[in-house]
Amino acid sequence: MLSRLWFGFFMVAALAALARWLIGGDETVFAAIVGALFDMADLSVKLMLMLFGTLTLWLGFLAIAERAGLVDGLARLLGPLFARLMPEVPRGHPAIGLITLNFAANALGLDNAATPIGLRAMRELQTLNPSDSTASNAQILFLVLNASSLTLLPVTVFMYRAQAGAHDPTLVFLPILLAHFASNLTGLLSVAYMQRLRLWDPVVLAWLGGGGLLLAGFLAFLASLTSAALASLSSLLGNLMLFGVIIVFLCAGAYKRVPLFESFIDGAKQGFEVSKEILPYLVAMLCMVGVLRASGAMDFALDGVRWLAQHAGMDTRFVDALPTALVKPFSGSASRAMLIETMHHSGVDSFPALAAATVQGSTETTFYVVAVYFGAVGIRRVRHTVGCALLADLAGVVASIAVCYWFFGKIT
């Protein structure tokens, strides 16, 4: 699947480049493509170095949490739920606790902590995988849910809007959460369909229903806050939770008489090994993204969508938000650049900018996540992972546009 997709994107880029040269007379397109290849290879190394530091830090603290029994405790607590969702994972397996920590970190927007914990969870799942190169059902479910994970406080989107001069940076808060819910639900249902999971099981319904009620209560509380209070809470909660997790790990380790420093060093040593495995996958994925962008293929796609919308008699304001949607599955930095460009071109509080901000906050860099998480364990055959993850992304984009028309339809 991944090989065919990778090859297909290069062929699309080649056709788009030929069209720009032969029809549009643009002789610089091939130089731009070659330049993009080298730029993305260089960027891959820079990202790997940044990820190496983060992995080293968090895998060190995670080793303390494991030796203190925190991960095993979470695994026992959630054993009945994961026995239904991931039947091949034994109850009490360390992967369950790590997956829970990863989801919690994602929900709070703690990306620096979520990725290292998620990679550790993927490596634990790989110990149960009978194949060295083919993704297991449990790994696929974990990755799709991770790629569409709910972020309760999209702090980074608020920050981009504030930097662009938005009157109310948190205006897109509720639209992002609603669109994110559509993405999460689609990802879960698509994997459940492919793997024949019984989501109507009473245990699953009880956990999902209870979690839904808690989430609804938290959202109701957040919705009652003023924009200034919400922005303040977003910043405070994110940083407080990040440091609080570290303190909890250390205190639990001290209580269980775990050798803290030695445990941290042992865990941190894993950072180099994991980072080394990821680099080839990052180069492959990011070079594909660079070629696709430099060839003009995305511009052709946008022009086609605009033409179809006009001939269907639809409102075309949403098309200006699609650059963010098109590049988000491939690159977080590229989608961030598209969002910023849309805000500056159309106005930070214009409909296209609000829709682009909602898309940015409710979708994930799917191909980057696939490259990093599967690259860390050497998985090359990803089966239905990409299809389910992209379907979740599509649901997030469609929901983002629909919700923005609902909330901001009168804004030009």
TrEMBL record:
Keywords: Membrane, Transmembrane, Transmembrane helix. GO terms for cellular component: plasma membrane. Residues 49-159, 277-379 form the Nucleoside transporter/FeoB GTPase Gate domain. InterPro entries: Gate_dom, SpmA_SpmB, SpmB. It comes from the Bacteria. Coiled coil: none annotated. The keyword Transmembrane applies. The chain crosses the membrane at residues 47-65, 140-160, 172-193, 205-230, 236-255, 278-298, 353-374, 386-408. PANTHER family: INNER MEMBRANE PROTEIN YJIG. This is Nucleoside transporter/FeoB GTPase Gate domain-containing protein. It comes from Dyella psychrodurans.
